[in-house]
Amino acid sequence: MSTMNMTLVVARKELRNVIRNKGLLFGGLWMGGMFGILNVLLTGQVFSFNNSVFSVALLVGVIVGFMFSAQIFLREKRERIIETMLCAPISLKAIWFGKVLGATVPAYLFSLFSVTLALVVSDIAMHSPVLPSLAILTHILGVVPVFIASAISLIGFCQFLLGMRENRIIGYLIILVLLPFMYPSILSGLIQGNTNVVVSWPEVVVCLIVSMLLLSLTTYLSRHLSKEKIVTTLP
Description:
Layout: H1 3-20, H2 22-41, H3 46-78, H4 81-87, H5 92-126, H6 134-161, H7 164-178, H8 184-192, H9 201-222, H10 227-232
Helix pairs in contact: 1-5, 2-3, 2-5, 3-5, 3-6, 3-7, 5-6, 6-7, 6-9
């Protein structure tokens, strides 16, 4: 079986585990719904709407992805399920990419749910159609899934590599580091020197570059992972 096929097998397994966990699904729906509705409350004009959608798509995806990574990486490590997988005739590379894909897909779907809810409720509240700009639409469809995958891959790498005590805080630290790239006012201030601007192509491109670099870095670092290293960190 090729690495791609093995990766898809692992991804399907993780997707089934996520779907069966009603607590995770409820948490994702609550998170997506809450941010989607809050987005409407913060929207009074196209300026704030585009900026809010920019951050909501990333925040929901990354936070829900963090919740799923705890199920896919950390729980299996805590309960020593990963030990069985490591003994199976499947490469660590396939396990790694399969788990990242298995967490990224549902996290991105919840991100889309939140954005869609924000669009629908905004249309109702404003009594007129409200649509994101082309830059924001590109951001939602093209950049957000890569950004989510990069965050999950970094969290997953740390959860594989570190012991259980360190894993209690590492995910929160990673999210804190990524927060400046999820808030338009901070990102626009860093890029354009003005926090009071409509998020556009410069912010979208910077988010894409950061996510690609981060994904490339964790993919490279994952090559130095070994089954032996992971086993030595099991509780």
